[in-house]
Amino acid sequence: MQDLRYLRLLAMSFPNVAEASKEIINLQAILNLPKGTEHFLADIHGEHEAFQHVLKNASGNIKRKVNEVFGDSLTKYEKRELCTLIYYPEQKLELVRQTQKDLDQWYHITIKQLVEVCHEVSAKYTRSKVRKALPDDFSYIIQELLHERTDDEDKVEYVGAIIDTIISTGRADDFITAISIVIQHLIIDQLHLLGDIFDRGPGAHIILDTLKPLRDWDIQWGNHDILWMGASAGNDACICNVLRIALRYANMYTIEEGYGINLVPLATFAMETYKDDPCSEFIPKMLGEDTLGDKQRYLYAQMHKAIAVIQFKLEAQIYHRNKSWNMEDRDLLSAIDFNNHTCCVDGKWHPMRSCHFPTIDPHSPITLTPEEQTVMESLHHSFMISEKLRKHIRMILRHGCMYAVVNNNLLFHASMPLNEDGTLRHVEIMPGKSLCGKDLMHNIGMMVRAAFQNDTSAEERQYAIDYFLYLWCGPDSPLFDKAKMATFERYFIADPDTHHEEKGYYFKFRNDEKIIDMILDAFEVQGDNRHVINGHVPVHVVKGETPIRAGGKLMVIDGGFAEPYHKETGIAGYTLVYHSRGLELVQHEPFTSTKEAIERGLDIKSTRQIIEMSKRRMRVADTDKGREIKKQILDLKDLLYAYRHGIIAENERKR
Fold first, then answer.
1. pLDDT tens digits, one per residue of 157-183
2. Which of 199, 195, 558 is nearest to 402 (CA)?
C-alpha cells in the first residue's frame, strides 16, 4: 500500500502512459550525457577579486575551451582578448568602444566567436537545462544561434541576419554581456566551497553577493564561517572574535560597509578606557599597503584591546557555564597574578608583556564592567538587526552543512577527530551524548541549525548558541582540532612555547592511506576512485609540501587565497576541477588585480596537474545524479505497469 500511495503521487506529475513514457525516454537520454564539471574551492577568506576571477575563468577551463574551439585559427593575443571579454564583458566592452575603428565588424566577428564557445560549453547539457540558464531578453536568440551552426551554407544568411539585427538595434553590448555570463555559468555544473568565506580579506559580503544568483553550489562550513554564524545567532563571544580579527588586520570594510555594524560605541569606550595605554600588543597587522595614519592606527589598537579583553571575559563565562567541555583552564584572566604581573599557563608561571587592565577586578576578573556591558549590548543589537548579514547567513545555512559526499568524494573543511591509535574519536556534543565520524558531523549540523530555529526549546537553543564557541576553538572540534587556541598567550606572554597550538591526531595520520580509507568507509563512500577533499591548512609549497596525500586519496586544496599566506606558501591557492575525463589540480599564482586583468588581459597564471584520468569519458550515469535518475526510471516503469494493468487509472484529459 505504501508503494501504491507513492505511485499515486507520482501519477499527479505523469498522469498517463504517454507522459510517463516520455519522461523515461528523457531520463534515459540524460544518463548518456557527459558528466558535468565540478569546481572545488576552499579558504577564500574575503579575497573577493581573486575569487571572482577564478570563478569567471573556471580555474582555466574557459581558456582551455577557447583553445579547443579555435586552435591555431586565432593568435594567442586574440584568444586572450576573447577570454578577458568572457570574464569581464561590461568592462572590456568599454575599452573596446574606445579603441576599435570599425566597431560593427568587431561586433559581428566577436558574437560569432562567443556563440561557438557557448555551443561548446553547452554541448554536455540538455536543451532544457541550457534554456533555464539563458537570460529572458535573449533566450530565443541564443537558442537559435546555438542550434543553427554558422558553417551551414543554408543557414549563413539566416544567422548573419540575426547578428546584423542585434547590432543595428543597438543591443550588441547587452547581447555580448549576456552570452558571456551564460558561458561562465555553463562551464561549471556544480561549485563546491570547502569553507572559510569570511575574515582576513575585505570582501566576504561581496563573495556572498556573487554566489546569490548561482543555482548549483554548496558549502561545507569552515571555522571562520561558523564564527560569523555564531555572531549572527547572538553569541557575544563570537561577536567579539569577529571584531577582534577585523581590528587585528585593520580590515573593517566587511564589518562597516558590508554589514553596517555600528562601532562608534566601541570606539568611544576604547578611547576613554585605554587613553593612557600604548596598546603596543594590539597595533594592527597590515595585510597590504599601510594607508592608516598614526591616529587611526592607535584608535584601532585601543579598540582591538578593548574587544579582546571583553572577549576573554565572555569566553570564560561560557566555559564555566559548560563544564562538560573541560575548557575552564582557558579562563586565563583568572590565572593572572596582578601583583607580580605573571600568568599561570599549563601549570607554569610566565611573566606578562603588560598587565594594564583597567576594566578587570582581580576579585572577579571575568565580570564585565557596566560600561563594557553597555558596549556589548550595542554591538549585539547591531549584529542582530543587520538584514544583509542575516540574509547571507540564511544562504550559508540553506546551501551548507558540516560535510558532503558527492560523486565518491567526501568533503569537509578541516578535520575528523581521531584517537591516538587512529580510530574515530567520540566527541561530547552535549552533556551525556558523545558521537564520532558521520554521526558527529551530522548532529553538529543539526545543532547549528537549531540555534536559528524558533521551535527549539530555550535551553537547547542557548546551548546551541554557546556551542558555536566550542566549534571555533574547542580541542575536539572538527573545525579546529588543536589542544588550545593561544590567542591570550600571543598577546600577553612573551614565552613562545606558550603560543604553540598542538594539532589533533587527524593532522598526524592524514598521510596514511589506511586511515583515510577508514574515514571513507565510516562515511559509506564507495567506488575505486574515492577521495577526502579538505581545505583549512595552507600547503607550504616553498617547503616542498604537496596537496596530494595518502596515496592520492586525500587532497588539501587550501594553498592560501588570503594575501598574508602568499609569502608563507609561495603560491596563491589551489583549486580542483573534476570533469568527465578526470580530476585536475590547479595551482594558482597571486592575482594582481581586476583592473590589470581587464586592461592588460592578465589572467591568473595557473599550473594544471592531472591527478586521475578516467579510462573512458564519464557519463551522468556514473554520478550520484545518475544513480538517482536510475531510481526514478524504475519508479516510472512501476507506474507504467500500474497504468497498463489497471491498478491506477490514466488521466487522459491531461495529455
1. 888 888 889 999 999 999 999 999 999
2. 195
